[in-house]
Amino acid sequence: MELSQILDNIYPMPEASKLRLLQLARRVHYPKGHLLLRAGKIETSLYFISKGIVRAYAPVNGQDLTFWFGKEGQTVVSMRSYVEHKAGYENIETLEDCELFELNTIELGRLFHKDIEIANWGRIFAERELIQTEERLISQQFHSATERYRALMEDHPDLLQRVQLGYIASYLGITQVSLSRIRAEFK
Amino acid sequence: MELSQILDNIYPMPEASKLRLLQLARRVHYPKGHLLLRAGKIETSLYFISKGIVRAYAPVNGQDLTFWFGKEGQTVVSMRSYVEHKAGYENIETLEDCELFELNTIELGRLFHKDIEIANWGRIFAERELIQTEERLISQQFHSATERYRALMEDHPDLLQRVQLGYIASYLGITQVSLSRIRAEFK
DNA sequence: GCTCTTTTTTATCATTTGTAAAAAGCAGGC
DNA sequence: GCCTGCTTTTTACAAATGATAAAAAAGAGC
User: Is A114 helix (H, G, I), strand (E, B) or coil?
Assistant: First the structure.
């Protein structure tokens, strides 16, 4: 997926503004298993995923807890670093060989104050992410593990093919053993 | 709490931009039990809470599930309506007599495209909400009910005084019976 | 195709949480 | 004071989920 299309899918901007963003980006490539962002660091890179899949995980009580997957068209960023310039709580690693577009968040921040179209693009990006996160929260809080698994199967069947079940279980907030039990019911 | 201060706490703007926002707002007052926003409706009002406390709840499987509380300084908005102009999934009701500042989201949207300071204010508002929601999600997913209750007690002790336990239990993603059990342990 | 490693499933038992119903506590109206 | 309705706590039992260990299956490298 090309960067121009990824940007348009968030919010279509006039060509001049889009060009400014495109010029900030550089295409990078990382193999499976590469750490894109590190917990405890103030990160200044933001990535758009052109090809591949990544996961975000936070170390909690000595365990790595997966709370997000990103694939083609999605944006990889430590919100804590990006918004508050503080150390983030998440590691983000590639789960496949990935092709990404990398942007510097400081330079992006400058554009937000220079170009109103880009500022609105940034606003709409955050708003969309917010809705998705809020829906995840509600689903997490009020649906059973089985219901959440079925919803994931419907909404993102490809994830189950591309990501190992231990990570999926963590994402669903259950143990791998529980997930395995749930899967066994449907066969 | 005055509106000017609420806006500044999100992101301080030059006076001219702030005035534009202030002019959009009107002060309103509602008694305890008033429904500010309705699920299934495309809402065009957004509120800043000057005084009082509100809760957001979604009807899921015939139950009302509380997933958010707002108090002084916070913003009441149906993200679905505000961002996507679609029917929202939440009801939001006052739990106390409330003093609020009401804004029309359509007019606010116009300002986003006219005034870059306001656009950035809107961006930062969404980004902050996003971080909070993401942290709630992680806490919800990876901490036990007891840990979540203790965290709530530390972070928002006033909530426990101002909100009935049935709503708190729902907010924590557990039943009222479970919450009662947890509370009994600490005595 | 075989070996070694990683991932997934199965089995058992302990713990947590849910459901339902009853009891206790509290506040307002008469 | 004493109903009445609402909220909170308690109890008993059922269901879901977790922890641990071990077996089975799947994949990677040679």
Answer: coil
Beta pairing partners, A92: A37, A56
pLDDT value at position A152? 92
Contacting residues for A165 by C-beta, under 8 A, at least 6 apart: A176, A179, A180, A183
- A16 CB and strand C closer than 7 A: no
CB-based contact A105:A77 (threshold 8 Å): yes
A116, A134, A136: residue with CB nearest B116: A116
* Tens digits of pLDDT across chain B (187 residues): 999 999 999 999 999 999 999 999 999 999 998 999 999 999 999 999 999 999 999 988 778 899 999 999 999 999 999 989 999 989 999 999 999 999 999 999 999 999 999 999 999 999 999 999 998 888 888 888 888 999 999 999 999 999 999 999 999 999 999 999 999 987 5
The model carries a pTM of 0.92
**Distance, Å, A142 CA → C6 C1':** 34
Sign of the CA dihedral with A159 first, then A162, A165, and A168 last = negative
Neighbours of A145 (CB within 10 A): 17
Question: At residue B140, what is the residue type?
Answer: Q
| Closest residue in A to B121 (Cα–Cα) | A123
Residue B122 C-beta-side C-alpha neighbours within 13 Å: 32
**Is the model's pLDDT at A140 over the cut of 90?**
no
Burial class (CB in 10 A: 0-12, 13-18, 19+), B176: middle
- Which of helix, strand or coil describes residue B51? strand
